[in-house]
Amino acid sequence: MLAGRAWVGGRLQTVEVGVGEDGTITALGKDLTGDRRHDVGQSVILPSGLDVHAHFREPTAGERVESVDTGTLQAAYGGIGAVVDMPNTDPPITTVERLEEKRRRAQGRLAVDLLLYAALTVPERVPALARVAAGFKLYLSPTTGIDPPPRPERIRPLLSAASVTQLPVAVHAEDPRRFRPTAGGGDDGTVAWNAARPPEAEEAAVDGLLMDAPPGLRLHVAHVTLPAVADRLRRAGQSFEASPQHLLLSAGPGADARWKVNPPLRPPPAASELWQRFRSGRVPIVASDHAPHSAEEKARPFAAAPSGMPGVETMLPLLLARVRESSLDLPVLVAAAADRPARLLGLPQGRLVPGHRANLLVVDFRAVTQLRAARLHAPCGWTAFDRWPAIFPAEHYLDGRAIVSGGEYVGAHDGRVVRPAFAPGAARPATVEGSEASRAGPGDDAPPGASARR
Ligand code: NCD
Ligand code: ZN
Fold first, then answer.
1. Of 140, 254, 337, 431, whose Cβ has the fewest other Cβ atoms within 10 Å?
2. Distance, CA 243 to ligand 1 centroid (Å)?
3. Which residues pair with 114 in a beta bridge?
4. What topology does CATH give the domain 48-348+373-385?
5. Which ligand approaches the C-alpha of residue 176 most closely?
6. With a 6 A CB cut-off, is 202 part of the ligand 1 pocket?
7. Is 143 in the pocket of ligand 1 (CB under 6 A)?
8. Cα separation, 184 vs 195, whole angstroms
9. How far from 5 is each of 11, 347, 365, 373, 401, CA to CA, in Å?
10. Whose CA is nearest to atom 6 of ligand 1?
């Protein structure tokens, strides 16, 4: 068991967290008997995070500077116990065979759990894909690996097909008809990129989605960058995420192509206004959109460089540092990085309650470090957050077993490919392998989107 101050029932309490043989939390209380007692002292016990948006680039790992091994290792160090891997790979994950192949290749290589999304490209394929995927990703604009996007009249049938499956549907919401390619043609950086893929493109895409989304669709809008769009989605009761880059960075003169991401960084004051919404709990989920490209590719002229930046290892540490400096409340962060993502993904984790998996972090809030790319575990070798304050978890447990101890990875690469408990064909529990019945159920039967409305 772990003993110390823990985030339980919405507040920090001094408790003991009992962990069963099966890797679940068995009890929370005082003077628990049974297993070995590990007192975390001044540190705080939190549920480990979940990242609902990352790109691990399988199977072309060599060329694309990331793989499920290196991606999940960064997640482990960054306090993320489960990651959604997006399907815009080469080749894209558009068929059952490709998804199964990706799952086979991942076995024995995962430092944390992985959820595999399929690309939503053909309505007729949705029922079969829903029996193997953890969710769907719909790209409304061309993206790394998936081009062209569906024609506008195809979007409604795609969403209808997906709504029957119960699975989450993450949408990259930019309407390419609003793009102004010539505005981004030069090499004048993030300001031009924002002009080329302007706010109207995001606004129009989200407006269209809200009209096209059938009731019952487990819709989740990826990387919202605009305060007004966040407000719109919140009023509509829909789940959405913001990423650290859009919460903490802005478009401005002088930024090189490492700062090129889709959707673009916005000029001030969008980020600070989005941050205000995040810190007041009005952004339901924070997700990294970890999208690494090599330093060489990102050293190209702005117009020629690929979009995307790494972030799965740095998301939680950056935000834990914000908690320490009192610009973010711990309950807001735990809800956005653990509880709501777990509910969206239908996984029995994300809170410290009996029955949930003992996926836990031990965080010493006094241990602030300066982020340095060389100390991170990203093969791409760079971060947009160089020298930012960060707090890395000292310990990370997956099913009660230490995978990080003393700040170092000590796990056995035995993370699993998991699916929502409510996924079609998921023999409860929520694993593809279906071997551990004790993990059944998300521990809460909140309806889709309900977590976003709280
Ligand atoms: C992503 C990538 O590189 O895969 N890039 C990005 O800027 N976010 C693609 C995407 O999510 O659109
Ligand atoms: Zn992405």
1. 254
2. 12
3. 83, 417
4. TIM Barrel (3.20.20)
5. 1
6. no
7. yes
8. 7
9. 10, 24, 12, 31, 19
10. 308
339 is catalytic: no
Q: Where are the domains of the chain?
A: 48-348+373-385
What's the rounded Cα separation, in Å, for the pair 117 and 58? 13
State the Cα–Cα distance between residues 430 and 408, nearest whole angstrom: 28
| 187 neighbors 302 (Cβ within 8 angstroms) | yes
Check 289, 339, 364, 399 and give the catalytic one: 289
Question: Would the CB of 144 count as within 6 Å of ligand 1?
Answer: yes
* Residue among 88, 147, 179 to mutate when testing ligand 1 (max atoms within 8 A of CB): 88
Which residues lie near ion ligand 2 (Cβ < 5 Å)? Answer: 289
Whole-model pTM? 0.93
- Cα 416 to ligand 1 centre (Å): 24
Closest CA to 22 of 442, 434, 400, 451: 400
